[in-house]
Every structure is written in C-alpha cells, then in structure tokens.
Amino acid sequence: MYVIIRRYRVAEEHQASFLRHYNDDGDWAALFRRDPAFKGARLLRDAQGGGAYLGIEYWESLTAYERFMRLNAAACAELDARCEALASERTLLGRYIHPA
C-alpha cells in the first residue's frame, strides 16, 4: 500500500467548495476511482478548527500511482487549476508505504 498525506489550510469562505472537491467522495476521489489501483481517500479536519485539513490517499503501489498520474496528467492538471484558489496552503507531508 502506498499512502500520500497532504496538509491544507482553507479559509472559511472556501470550505464548502473545498469539501466538494477534496472530501472522501469528492471530485478528486472520483477522478482517482477511474483506476482500480486507487484504494480510497480520507479527508480529516483539525478538531481544533482553524481551517486545517489532512488529505490521505491510498494506492495499491507507487508504480500504480505514478502510472495513473502519467496517464491522467491532463485531467489532474485541469482539476488542480479549478481547486488552486481554495486552499491558502498545500503541503505534501509525506509518502509512505505499509510495512507488509
């Protein structure tokens, strides 16, 4: 299992749109579900508030993720452009593998 974790900071006025795109069943997850190697996504909101979120993606493997990104680069770029203004901060926290 290959896991990608990102942190987002979202202003209150953008939260509804952000959730529509980034929630577990949002636009990004719908795009990723085109590939059977995508195993799911989770969006977590900071319990203390303040508009902080963690986005977690689960993929079968690094190879599968890289293949998806290569084959779907245009669709990902288009969706990313639509979402760009929603988060004031987007930080890649890490890429992990499950120690099987």
From TrEMBL:
Keyword Oxidoreductase in record: yes
All residue ranges annotated as the ABM domain in the record: 1-71
One Pfam family, short name: ABM
InterPro entries (UniProt xref): ABM_dom, Dimeric_a/b-barrel
Keywords attached to this entry: Monooxygenase, Oxidoreductase
GO terms assigned for molecular function: monooxygenase activity
Record has Oxidoreductase as a keyword: yes
Protein name: Antibiotic biosynthesis monooxygenase
Organism of derivation: Fulvimonas soli
Upper taxonomic lineage: Bacteria, Pseudomonadati, Pseudomonadota, Gammaproteobacteria, Lysobacterales
